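Hey, resending since the last one bounced:
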Amino acid sequence: MQLYKNIKHLLRHPIGRRNKLKSLASFFKWQFAQKILQSPVLMEFIEDGVFLVKKGMTGATGNIYSGLHEFEEMGFLLHFLKKEDVFFDVGANVGSYTILASKVIGATSCSFEPSPNSFKHLEDNVFLNRIQKKALIFNQGIGAEKGNIQFSINQDTINHVVFDEKEESISIKITTLDQHIEELNIIPALIKIDVEGFETEVIRGADSLLLNHTLQAVIMELNGSGGRYGFDEEAIHQKMLGSGFKAYQYEPFNRELELRKERSLHGNTIYIKDFKKTIERLKEARHFEVMGVTV
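The structure tokens again:
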């Protein structure tokens, strides 16, 4: 049953719909490989990017099947970022977005991943892609203030901040985005925030950054996970609007932005400050081949 669901999801993916044979071939190749290989496997990503993947890495394996696991958001990054830009990857996991930004585009990345296991894979992927000078990686979390906090372990992409003493966790260091940009004197043009419900605290620690004219876009997951901490994610949405952003949905094939009245409740929302400048970037960007499909 799970196999059927996976294939169904794959063929509904925008890349899978356009190249069913290649997507299915990649899917079954990985299904076979993970059964016979015990160690991580080096897989091709976009263009000459690569990443290590092993069984259980749900985000990374999604890139094997469909080329770009989060198609709209990753497509936006590829079309928006320029080589001279800085990208912040908050909740980088094993580094899919970091590889796209620093290997494929050549932009500078600051990538934050608090989980020691995921950070080790992020570190390996940065090394394998030879982007050590482009991708600055930090084994720490981002929040509303500097300090330490408990963090879950062994949950892959859904590791999260823990307040329940019964849940297995470790102590991690956290800082704020405002403190980080002050210390390094570096301002991102684009930020991706995926921290499993802790987005409220990340945004609370980014008041100055949100108002900085260099920051033009934020990709943020607000799918209700903040409820585990008692956070009102609609308040984050309103704060983004109050900071000069508007919410959009992106269609990479046509490079079109559609204004949203509300945030996405099931995935990521793309927040943009200057529509005109952003759409110019998107239209001018070069094309990319993803699993035989031009994006």
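The two ends are 32 Å apart (CA to CA).

Sorry for the duplicate.
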